[in-house]
């Protein structure tokens, strides 16, 4: 097994967070060219904290005094302290409250992270309110800002594994109400972009991973525990969350009206069977399986993002090795599964 240096993100949570929030020189140079403050709506989720801290670090390196503001409804005390120690201003607001939304400061650049996936089944009305109604309220409120809005590769249909994945020209075909509400989010943002000329970028993410959460962690833990790996969704795209953060901050230079739509995904059509077998080699145990690979999967073609930003900085084999080291060390997790195997859209 490859043993990484003492400052590798596999060593401690602090090192992991540092890796996820360290800006590349390209990010620094990009934010140096973008005027105005930056605000992240929904900063308390899995992506938000390190994305906000990367923005702050990049602006500091660029010599810019612009504010970085995170907005969350009910952030925990640890997150409050960590963001404030990192120079990120934190505001508490329920974005579905019109008065609270109106009371947010005017800023030039918005990252829209708010949304709901897990728990949709049985509470569909809440998912539609957050994923589809709220974007319209945000677009009305920040019609003079640039907006980078997160969506998901789930807006695509399952595509043949041999296709190379759905690209941005592939007609949407969302399966289930979560995915349908996310397409609704895109369409609502698109409407207001046309109406007001709002410059936007819509990010179809598929799938961000880090060492505490994601497709690779789920496969690794199953192999380590001797549990069979589900092959129903036999292929996937995975991309390091740090690379997602970097691309997100560089997208403000590419916002357009109507919106730029961009797949942000791992470049490989990665075999779940191969990933599991690689973890088996690293753990010294055999990988076992249940089910069989279908001929279709939820796959995104990242060629356009790779053209804009280059290939992700952390390759797949390194991600697998980092994840294996994290599991062997008993590293903490977020305690949530991605349900990437889901083929019927029930979340």
From TrEMBL:
Source domain of life: Bacteria
Stored InterPro entries: Epimerase_deHydtase (IPR001509), NAD(P)-bd_dom_sf (IPR036291)
Residue ranges of every copy of the NAD-dependent epimerase/dehydratase domain listed in the record: 40-206
A Pfam entry, by short name: Epimerase
Protein's recorded name: Nucleoside-diphosphate-sugar epimerase
Lineage: Bacteria, Bacillati, Actinomycetota, Actinomycetes, Micromonosporales
């Amino acid at each position: 097994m490859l043993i990484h240096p003492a400052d590798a993100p596999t060593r401690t949570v602090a090192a992991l967070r540092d890796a996820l929030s360290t800006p590349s020189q390209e990010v620094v140079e990009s934010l140096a060219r973008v005027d105005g403050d930056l605000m992240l709506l929904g900063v308390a989720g899995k992506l938000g904290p390190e994305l906000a801290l990367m923005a702050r670090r990049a602006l500091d390196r660029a010599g810019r005094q612009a504010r970085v503001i995170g907005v969350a409804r009910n952030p925990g005390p640890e997150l409050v302290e960590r963001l404030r120690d990192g120079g990120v201003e934190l505001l508490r607001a329920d974005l579905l409250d019109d008065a609270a939304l109106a009371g947010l400061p005017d800023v030039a650049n918005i990252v829209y992270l708010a949304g709901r996936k897990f728990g949709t089944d049985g509470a569909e009305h809440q998912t539609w309110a957050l994923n589809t109604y709220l974007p319209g309220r945000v677009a009305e409120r920040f019609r003079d800002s640039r907006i980078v809005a997160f969506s998901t590769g789930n807006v695509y249909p399952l595509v043949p594994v041999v296709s190379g994945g759905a690209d941005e020209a592939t007609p949407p075909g969302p399966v289930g109400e979560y995915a349908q509400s996310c397409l609704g989010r895109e369409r609502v943002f698109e409407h207001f972009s046309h109406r007001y000329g709002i410059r936007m970028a819509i990010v179809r993410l598929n799938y961000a991973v880090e060492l505490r959460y994601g497709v690779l962690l789920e496969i690794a833990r199953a192999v380590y525990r001797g549990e069979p790996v589900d092959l129903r969704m036999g292929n996937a795209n995975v991309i390091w969350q740090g690379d997602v953060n970097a691309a997100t901050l560089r997208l403000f230079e590419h916002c357009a009206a109507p919106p730029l739509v961009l797949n942000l995904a791992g470049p490989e059509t990665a075999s779940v069977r191969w990933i599991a077998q690689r973890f088996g080699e690293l753990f010294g145990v055999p990988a076992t399986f249940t089910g069989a690979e279908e001929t279709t999967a939820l796959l995104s073609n990242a060629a356009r993002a790779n053209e804009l930003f280059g290939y992700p900085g952390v390759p797949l084999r390194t991600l697998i090795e980092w994840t294996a080291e994290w599991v062997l060390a008993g590293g903490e997790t977020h305690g949530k599964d991605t349900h990437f195997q889901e083929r019927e859209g029930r979340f």
